[in-house]
Specification:
The complex is a heterodimer of chains A (about 260) and B (about 375).
Chain A lengths: L1 E5 L2 E3 L7 E2 L2 E2 L6 E3 L1 H17 L2 E8 L3 H11 L3 E6 L9 H12 L6 E5 L10 H9 L3 E11 L2 E8 L2 E8 L2 E5 L11 H7 L4 E4 L36 H14 L5
Parallel strand pairs in A: 1-6, 1-8, 6-7, 7-13, 8-12, 9-12
Antiparallel strand pairs in A: 2-5, 3-4, 9-10, 10-11
Helix pairs in contact in A: 2-5, 3-4
Chain B lengths: L6 H18 L3 H7 L4 H9 L18 H11 L4 H11 L1 H9 L2 H12 L5 E4 L15 E5 L2 E12 L6 E7 L10 E7 L5 E6 L10 E12 L3 E2 L5 H37 L1 E2 L2 E2 L4 H29 L5 H26 L10 H10 L7 H14 L1
Parallel strand pairs in B: 1-4
Antiparallel strand pairs in B: 2-3, 3-7, 4-5, 5-8, 6-7, 9-10
Helix pairs in contact in B: 1-4, 4-8, 5-6, 6-8, 8-9, 8-10, 9-10, 10-11, 10-12
The chains are: A alpha/beta (about 260), B alpha+beta (about 375).
Bound molecules: flavin-adenine dinucleotide (2 copies).
The site of one flavin-adenine dinucleotide (FAD) has 14 residues of chain B, from helix 9 and helix 10.
Chain lengths: ~260, ~375
């Protein structure tokens, strides 16, 4: 099976993030594989181990994304491709990324493409579905289970906490949701082996794309941290007094009713 | 020079950090209370290859250089020191003799199992009458045909109750003593005449066990001599020398953890209407903790780099061990102080680190012995 994983390098939202001049500051931030993509890497490795074939991880980004690709290789992926846009693009959006990935994947005959449900930085959830549309293959989002039997694919997907079963067939693109699996740690021998695995680097030119073809359709006006959460408030007194007070607060202070 | 890590070492550092934080830390309190490391953590450590960091790739390990090992041990030092002892006694003093000095036969026979963590290793030099004065061994080995017959008692041997293979030092020529009369042997736990004695009750390092080894006419095949007959004392010094850098690295990792815990406690704990971190008295403690830890890290990395450059590091390895273990004790003491009463009770990890820190000034050569070694080198000029 020819398995492809779309992988993004993102900052770790569990670590401290600071913003200056409308940009997330790279200094001091920790960078990781987008956690939803990590589920994709893990599932791809399991599919390959069960069905044979090869796992390729692909990232659109800058030179630094090599580290995250190497981590995927250390987990067990077979090869990696970095589509380096550093020199060609100042900014991009989901359209940009999806367009580049679609061009790259057009002649690759992937059986399964695994993407993250969302990237934890932008949080748009668009790249996976856009790539599938571009390639003209079916897609299923937020999957929590996948089984492949010949060409037939059974999938369970998360629908806002409930689950839905879907039957489809290869080729297919899926986006991975929490609960799909527990990603493995790259082992130390895995990290050593990853050094020798192929990591190909290409640029827009190699895909016959130029800047115009992938120009972002979204303009970012500002980036800012969410406001600090105020301390909670405890209501006291007997229940009916508390309910009255709560309704009053919701109406007059929070202005939601 | 010291801070730029090779990409793969950086990746390993990240992985071990995540593993320790997410998988081991949640069990630290349990390890302390039950004096036992959960088996699943040991299995996970095996799968991740942590038991093979010193063993060459051709034998199934990853053959890290000294800097790589120091980086990994530093990350391991961030968690329960008993858990770390199991791994570091194996990868450090337990493996080094075989890796650096043993015959191809012994390497083929034992290293693959050790790299996988299937065979746990221990290092047995200390005896009741031979602590700092390691040359005063009473354990004897006498050659009989193609076997050696070993008699004697070792004590305080880390990993003894769980180990499968022991690097054991015995007197083979009383006349020559340290100068050609001590030999290192690879002894398996099932060799006839070898039993494990009582397990020590310790101040700390719970989950890691030390015990006596008792040899009564224990038969050891001649092929199990590590290195040359009579050259055991030099071997021991070499093994311990490299081990010291690893011990220093673990101490530095523990300091990092204590500083993080102390800083976050100081920011949250309010007295007199403000966080205690607002008091200069607390800030100065944190400043000293951080500065000394950084200095210990640099000394440790310097010694590790020197090993990798093939230089003699007797002095620098002793300095790293001496300084890092002293710093660990000072940092742990300040961490207790910053935590006030919370630093003294077992609900918090601080008092555990405080107790675990203490042994680092004693084993793998007491800090007095380290000073002796350093002074000798300084006086030699
Ligand atoms: C938890 C634990 C784990 C251990 N693990 C191992 C192991 O895996 N393998 C192993 O072989 N050993 C191990 N040991 C033994 C350890 O290495 C010794 O305890 C250590 O070397 C000190 O020896 P000693 O206890 O006999 O103390 P002693 O040598 O009796 O020292 C007592 C005091 O006298 C001082 N002293 C001694 N000689 C001098 C001198 N010439 N000048 C100045 N001061 C001096 C010492 O510094 C110390 O303060 C372990 C010990 C412990 C407690
Ligand atoms: C084993 C044990 C027995 C005890 N027995 C008793 C008992 O019988 N009865 C009883 O009433 N209490 C008892 N205590 C409580 C003990 O008195 C307190 O733990 C102690 O007063 C410290 O208070 P704290 O733990 O809240 O630390 P904190 O007051 O939170 O102090 C934390 C740190 O901040 C520092 N700090 C705080 N304020 C300042 C400041 N303004 N400037 C500079 N530094 C500051 C402290 O010196 C300390 O280093 C006991 C505690 C223990 C651990």
């Amino acid at each position: 099976m020819n398995i492809v994983v779309l992988l993004k390098r993102t900052f770790d939202t569990e670590e401290k993030i600071s913003i200056a001049n409308g940009q997330v500051q790279e200094e001091g931030a920790e960078f990781i594989i987008n956690p939803y993509d990590e589920y994709g890497v893990e599932e791809a490795i399991r599919l390959r181990d069960n069905h044979g074939g090869e796992v390729t991880v692909v990232s659109v980004g800058g030179e630094e994304a090599e580290k995250q690709l190497r981590t995927a290789l250390a987990m067990g992926a077979d090869k990696a491709v970095l589509i380096n846009t550093e020199d060609d693009l100042d900014e991009g959006d989901q359209f940009t990324t999806a367009k580049i990935l679609t061009s790259y994947l057009t002649d690759k005959n992937a059986d399964i493409i695994l993407a993250g449900n969302v990237a934890i930085d932008g949080g748009s959830g668009q790249v996976g579905p856009r790539v599938a549309e571009g390639l003209g293959i079916p897609y299923v989002t937020t999957i929590t289970q996948i089984e492949v039997n010949g060409k037939a694919v059974s999938i369970t997907r998360d629908v806002e906490g409930d689950s839905e079963s879907i039957q489809t067939s290869l080729p297919v693109l899926v986006t991975c949701q929490q609960g799909l699996n527990e990603p493995r740690y790259p082992s130390l021998p895995g990290i050593m082996k990853a050094k020798k695995k192929p990591l190909e680097e290409i640029e827009l030119d190699d895909l016959d794309l130029d800047e115009e073809d992938v120009r972002a359709k979204i303009k970012t006006l500002d980036i800012y941290l969410p406001p600090q959460k105020a301390a909670g408030r405890l209501l006291e007194g007997d229940i009916s007094a508390q309910v009255d007070e709560l309704v009053g607060l919701l109406r007059n202070e929070a202005k939601v009713i | 020079m010291f801070t730029q890590l090779k990409p793969e070492i950086d990746q390993m550092k990240q992985m071990v950090r995540n593993y320790v934080e997410r998988e081991v830390e949640p069990y630290a309190q349990q390890i302390e209370e039950e004096d036992k490391i959960p088996q699943h953590l040991i299995e996970q450590a095996k799968e991740l290859g942590l038991f093979g960091i010193s063993i060459p790739e051709e034998y199934g390990g990853i053959g890290l250089n000294a800097v790589g090992k120091a980086v990994i041990l530093e990350q391991l030092g961030r968690t329960h020191n008993g858990f770390v002892s199991l791994i570091s006694a194996h990868t450090g003093i337990g493996s080094t003799g075989l890796v650096k000095l043993a015959s191809p036969y012994l390497k083929d026979k034992y290293l693959p199992g050790m790299a996988a963590g299937e065979k746990i290793a221990a290092f047995a030099l200390s005896e009741p009458a031979a602590g700092s004065d390691a040359t005063n061994l009473e354990t004897r080995a006498v050659k009989r045909g193609d076997k050696w017959i070993v008699n004697g008692t070792k004590h305080f041997i880390t990993n003894a109750p769980v180990a499968d293979v022991f690097t054991v030092f015995a007197l083979t020529d009383k006349e020559k003593g340290a100068k050609g009369g001590i030999t290192a042997f690879l002894i398996e736990k099932d060799f006839p005449g070898f039993t494990i004695g009582k397990i020590d009750k310790k101040m700390g390092l719970r989950g890691s066990y030390t015990a006596q080894l008792i040899f009564e006419d224990c038969e050891v095949p001649d092929v199990n001599v590590i290195g040359e007959v009579g050259m055991g004392y030099l071997s021991a010094l070499k093994i311990l020398g490299e081990g010291r850098v690893g011990l220093a690295a673990r101490a530095v990792g523990s300091c990092d953890k204590l500083i993080e815990l102390s800083a976050s406690y100081a920011k949250e704990r309010k007295q007199f209407g403000k966080p205690i971190a607002d008091n200069q008295a607390i800030q100065w403690m944190l400043a000293d903790m951080a500065t000394e830890t950084e200095a210990a890290r640099m000394l440790t990395l310097k010694a590790a780099h020197m090993i990798d450059d093939g230089k003699k590091v007797i002095k620098e390895a002793s300095m790293a061990k001496l300084f890092a273990s002293d710093v660990f004790n000072r940092v742990a003491d300040k961490a207790v102080q910053i935590h006030g009463g919370m630093g003294y009770v077992a609900d918090y990890p601080i008092e555990r680190f405080y107790r675990d820190a203490r042994i680092t000034k004693i084993y793998e050569g007491t800090n007095e012995i380290q000073r002796l070694i350093i002074a000798r080198k300084v006086l030699e000029g």
